[in-house]
Every structure is written in structure tokens, then in C-alpha cells.
Amino acid sequence: MRTRTLGTHGPSVSALGLGCMSMSALYGEADRAESLATIHAALEAGVTLLDTGDFYGMGHNELLINEALRTAPAARREQALTSVKFGALRTVEGGFTGYDGRPAAVKNFVAYSLQRLGTDHIDIYRIARLDPDVPIEETVGTIAELVKAGHVRHIGLSEVGAETIRRAAAVAPISDLQIEYSLISRGIEAEILPVCRELGIGVTAYGVLSRGLISGHWSPDRKLAANDFRGMSPRFTGDNLQHNLDLVETLRGIAAAKDLTVAQTAIAWVLSRGEDIVPLIGARSRERLAESLSAADVTLDHDDLAAIERAVPVDAAAGDRYPANQMAHLDSEK
Ligand SMILES: NC(=O)c1ccc[n+]([C@@H]2O[C@H](COP(=O)([O-])OP(=O)(O)OC[C@H]3O[C@@H](n4cnc5c(N)ncnc54)[C@H](OP(=O)(O)O)[C@@H]3O)[C@@H](O)[C@H]2O)c1
């Protein structure tokens, strides 16, 4: 697996990272044994970046990664870098009630994460969403203290806009911004991506398959569990779904002509957008992982890229990328 460096200040990581979220609820139930096997297969294939959040399954995801790393061969365990999001406040029923970026809360969150991960440091640590009541300088300043203490190696950001990125970068070096970026979510191109490039900040892109919608495997008949985020996503519901799946069919023709799958084409497109971008693959089975990782070897030339962008023009998707109540938490959309 080729590597990419996360910004001027960040670590060198595999060109594709593994996002582990779907292994712990949010997209319905996952198979634990298959999740562990998927993490092992990713490490075996050369993936070094494992992304998680302490709120993914309320600690479940970090414990799963702990188990996967404990049961992996030593060399594979040592190559793994953890990227952890914190700050989300949750309810017993699984709801999200806000975000907490106060210094005391950051120190509390990290202590629990280190314990669950069974490690003495986290490689990249970031608040999942801006806490509107706490200046970003305080949250990032506290993570900078954790870096000094050796509990964290690098500071990341998640779903924040240009002004917040500048303010954060003025406090401490930032390795990467984690944000949604795909053929159908191109909002970062106007302002956020140029600011990251100006400041030497990398991008870890999530939702490169738009949570499965542009994977080429989605079907309108798919039954979703009550707790599956996609059942609430505007892009997966109502008339928007068929509109978006029609875009996928256009893309399928282009992919097939190159002997690629739709998912591989969508991932290769994100990879083609710059050496400073590392897509996070959200696979939770070895089969999906293998399909996605092959995208790392795909080269799209000028004509391919032009055809893809004709098939899926900017702003072609119908529906926002989050439901309205969650859009309100996105500093990146303000
Ligand atoms: N910072 C943030 O705000 C934020 C938000 C969301 C996610 N993330 C991170 O980004 C990671 C990736 O996000 P995501 O899961 O939404 O990404 P994604 O890659 O867009 O979607 C992953 C889903 O697509 C489906 N899929 C179909 N074919 C696939 C293939 N070949 N490879 C992989 N998945 C395929 C799978 O759903 P089925 O298994 O149901 O078929 C899978 O769970 C997460 O795990 C998390 O670590 C960060």
C-alpha cells in the first residue's frame, strides 16, 4: 500500500485508512467476528490508519480495535495508528445531545479512550464537532497539553469551517481535517480545502461512498434497522433516493468500461483529488474491504476524470448530507 503524509505536521499513513464506525452500530448491527477479521485483513494489506470515535457504540468501537490489535501479529499491531474523535454527548437510548470541548472534559475523554484502547497514546485526537460554547483555542490548547504529556501524538479537526481551522492552527500544529468528501459531497472544494492546503493541513475524507449510497451495492429495497443512520439521511429517503441512485447507474457505465466497480471508481476519484487527501474506507466485511483497497492501485486519467464529472456533476445529489438537526452541528456548513 502506498503512503501519504497528513499535512506538514502529521504522520505518514497508508493512502487508504480504515474507518471502523460501522462495526459498532450507526449502520445497524455488525458481525463482531467479521469486524475483527476485517481489521486484521486491512492491517495485513498495509493499512496503517484506523479511525474511530469514543462514541461509536459508546466505547464499543475502541474496545473492538483494542481486541483486534491485541490479537494481530506484533508487526501489524506496531504499524497501526489510531485516530480518535471525542466530544459527543449521548443518551442511554443512543441519542446525540451535543458536544463538550471544555478542557476538563477533553482530559476526561482521553483518559477513558486510552483505557479502552489499551494503549499509552493516541496518534491523532480530535473533537468530532465544534462545541459552540467553548472557543476552539481552548479545546485544541488542551489537546496540545496532551501532546506534551505524551498521551497524544497529533492534533486533528473534524467538520469545521475555514475560520475555525485558522484559529485552531494558530494554537498548535494540526495534522488533518476529517470531513465528508465524495463525488456527491464536494462542499469543501470552495473554501475549506484551499485553507487546509495554505496551512499545510491534510484531509482524511469520510463518506467517500456516501455511506454506501454510491457504492454500487445499494438497493431501494434494502431494509434498514431502526438505528441505521441511513434511514434518517435525506439522501437515502423519499424521491431523493432514486435520483441519487440514477447518478450511480451513470457512473456504473464508466466504471465498467474501465473494468472497475462503482465503489472503486468513487474511491479512486477521491484519491485523485490530491496527495494530501486520505480516504477512510468504511468497510465492515473482508469482501467490501478487498473491493475498496483495490482502488489504491487505480489511476484515472484526464479523460476518465472528465467522464466521471460529467456523469456526476458538482451538486448533482439530491438531499443534504445530514438530517437538519445534525446539519446544525456542522461548523463546516456555516
Ligand atoms: N468525522 C466525522 O464526522 C465522521 C462521520 C462519519 C464517518 N466518519 C469516519 O469515516 C469512516 C468512513 O465513513 P462511512 O462509513 O460513512 O464511509 P463510506 O465508505 O462512505 O460508507 C461505508 C458503507 O458503505 C457500504 N459499502 C458498500 N460497498 C462498500 C465497499 N466496497 N467498501 C466499503 N463500504 C462499502 C457499507 O455499508 P454496508 O456494510 O451496510 O453495506 C459501509 O458500511 C467511518 O468509519 C468513521 O471512522 C467520520
Automatic annotation (TrEMBL):
Family annotation (InterPro entries): Aldo-Keto_reductase, NAD(P)_OxRdtase_dom_sf, NADP_OxRdtase_dom
Entry keyword annotation includes Oxidoreductase: yes
Domain NADP-dependent oxidoreductase stretches: 16-311
A GO MF term: oxidoreductase activity
Alphabetized Gene3D superfamilies for the sequence: NADP-dependent oxidoreductase domain
One cellular component (GO) term of this entry: cytoplasm
Keywords: Oxidoreductase
Record's keyword annotation contains Oxidoreductase: yes
PROSITE patterns for the chain: PROKAR_LIPOPROTEIN (PS51257)
Record protein name field: Aldo/keto reductase
